[in-house]
Design a protein that fits this description.
Order of helices and strands: EHHEHEHEHEHEHEEHHEEHEEEHHEH
Shape: globular
Mean pLDDT: 96
Distance between the termini: 27 Å
Low-confidence stretches: none
CATH class of the largest domain: Alpha Beta
CATH architecture of the largest domain: 3-Layer(aba) Sandwich
Structural class: alpha/beta
Bound molecules: pyridoxal-5'-phosphate
Strand content: 5-15%
CATH superfamily of the largest domain: Type I PLP-dependent aspartate aminotransferase-like (Major domain)
Helix content: 40-55%
Number of strands: 14
Radius of gyration: 22 Å
Strand order of the largest sheet: 2-8-7-6-5-3-4
């Protein structure tokens, strides 16, 4: 099997599995951190240790982090929690149309609450047009929502420029940043990034599903989204899961431990595939300066789903955003918004890599594409 779909999800690494198994089979670590007896104290201590370790990797304070079930929950909590808390300060939110649905659907909900969403256009490289952003900023804007690395194209957000524009035009605006595809693949230094909120997801970095993280900068107040027993400083109620927190922490530490070698491997794979695919008249849709972990490519004469299923026959797993339903063809809104024509976008597939992919796999991928072209030429 060749798994080139790591932006969708990743396989848990042995270090995570071992930690999970040890934790689950422990005679003490199953306790409820809220219990007043000794088991509660043991688990609370261990649970807090996870925050400490994660905060040291992400360069923030432990009390700025909250465990959630996934990045979608983190996005919902950050956006709705912030705007409901700060509604008297303004009613405009700025974002792009190329955000993940976790953000876009939450923004739709914000509209129902009376907020106005203003979208900044993106350019051919998927980056927000900064002059337009500057024009959109006014005293009424309270929040801006962006994605650090786009999940479909690997396009990297010009975060520093955006922060500078915010600081120049209206310092009071909060920034929410989706870091789902950047964590473990770009250096994350929350103290230096000048954002107010952010989301992370463990299953994209070889942890298990069910492990999300929310960052809320100290001093920024938001309303909680999940209400109940007041766990996690009243911000995210529900009995804390030590084992999931450990699974996230281990995956994160491992990702940064292997950061450099991982970049080298994935860069080599991406470079090779770009060169070979262009020779075969495929169109590379990821920008030249995209993160190497994502490669969006359009195959001439092959609709996305056809290519996906052909590759599947060779044991190669990739992703398609475009899909044919019985009547209409769904095409990636991200690619369309970047100005890519419907046909090219409709033929696109996303390859996404991890540190466990190899050059051998990349070569097999190209050989399989050649065979598929030959079969269809007959
Ligand atoms: N944001 C981005 C950029 C993503 O790629 C994803 C998942 O595909 C999400 C948010 C949602 O993450 P989760 O599956 O943890 O809810």
């Amino acid at each position: 099997m060749i798994y080139f779909d790591n932006s969708a999800t990743t396989k848990p690494i042995p270090e995570v599995i071992e930690t999970v198994c040890n934790s689950l089979s422990s005679d003490t670590l199953f306790g409820n951190p809220g219990s007043l007896h000794e088991l509660g104290t043991i688990v609370t201590k261990e649970y807090n240790n996870q925050f400490k370790a994660i905060a040291s990797v992400l360069h923030c304070y432990e009390n700025e982090l909250y465990f959630t079930s996934c990045a979608t929950e983190s996005a919902n909590t950050a956006i709705l929690g912030y705007i409901t808390r700060h509604k008297r300060e303004g009613n405009i939110i700025i974002s792009t149309r190329t955000e993940h649905k976790a953000t876009l659907e939450t923004l739709k909900k914000a509209e129902e609450f009376g907020f106005i969403i203003k979208f900044v256009d993106v350019d051919r490289n998927g980056k927000p047009k900064l002059d337009m952003l500057e024009e959109l900023i006014s005293d009424e804007v309270i929040l801006m929502c962006f994605t650090h690395v786009n999940n479909e194209t690997g396009s990297i957000l010009p975060l520093d420029e955006i922060v500078n524009i915010r600081n120049k035009k209206n310092r009071k605006i909060a920034i929410y940043l989706d870091m789902v595809q950047s964590v473990g693949k770009l250096a994350i230094d929350l103290k230096k990034m000048n954002i107010e909120m952010g989301s992370f997801s463990g299953h994209k970095i070889h942890s298990v599903k069910g492990t999300g993280l929310l960052y809320v900068k100290a001093g920024v107040s938001i309303n909680p989204y999940i209400l109940g027993g007041g766990q996690q400083n009243n911000m995210r109620s529900g009995t804390q899961s030590l084992v999931l927190a450990e699974a996230f922490r281990v995956a994160l530490e491992e990702a940064y431990k292997h950061f450099d070698e991982s970049h080298e491997t994935v860069h080599e794979i991406n470079k090779f595939l770009r060169e070979e695919l262009v020779k075969r008249e495929a169109v590379i849709l990821s920008p030249d300066d995209a993160l190497d972990y994502v490669l969006n490519v359009s195959f001439k004469g092959f609709e996305s789903e056809t290519m996906l299923h052909c590759l599947e026959k060779y044991g190669i797993y990739v992703s398609t955003i475009s899909a044919c339903s019985s009547k209409t063809k769904k095409v990636s809104y991200v690619l369309l918004d970047m100005g890519i024509d419907r046909k090219t976008a409709g033929n696109s597939i996303r390859l996404s890599f991890s540190r466990f992919n190899t050059m051998e796999e990349a070569k097999t991928f190209i050989a399989s594409v050649d065979e598929i072209y030959k079969l269809f030429a007959l």
